Amino acid sequence: xxxxxxxxxxxxxxxxxxxxxxxxxxxxxxxxxxxxxxxxxxxxxxxxxxxxxxxxxxxxxxxxxxxxxxxxxxxxxxxxxxxx
Length: 84
Known about the structure:
By secondary structure, the protein is an alpha+beta fold. The chain has a single domain (about 10-80), classed as Ribonuclease H-like superfamily/Ribonuclease H (Nucleotidyltransferase, domain 5). It contains three helices and two strands; from the N terminus they run αβααβ. It has helices at about 10-30, 40-50, 60-70; strands at about 35-40, 75-80. α1 runs parallel beside α3 and α2 crosses α3 (about 60-70). The longest helix has 18 residues, at about 10-30. The radius of gyration is 12 Å and the shape is globular.
C-alpha cells in the first residue's frame, strides 16, 4: 500500500497520527483482520494504545484510529528509526 496526503504546515506528530489512522482505515476497508502496526513515534503509539492522552489538536485523529483498531486483531509496537 502506498498513498500520499497533503497535511499543510503541521507537526511530525500530526503526520504520524494521520498515517496510523489512514493505515488502519485502509486495513479495515480491505478486510485485513490481523495487523502489527509499527511506528517510530513512541508518543503516537502510546496515544493509540491509550497510555498517553493526546493533545487537543490530535484528539479526533487518535480517537478515530482507536475506533478502527477495535474492529480488528491488532498489535501496536514502537520501532526505532534507522539513522543513515
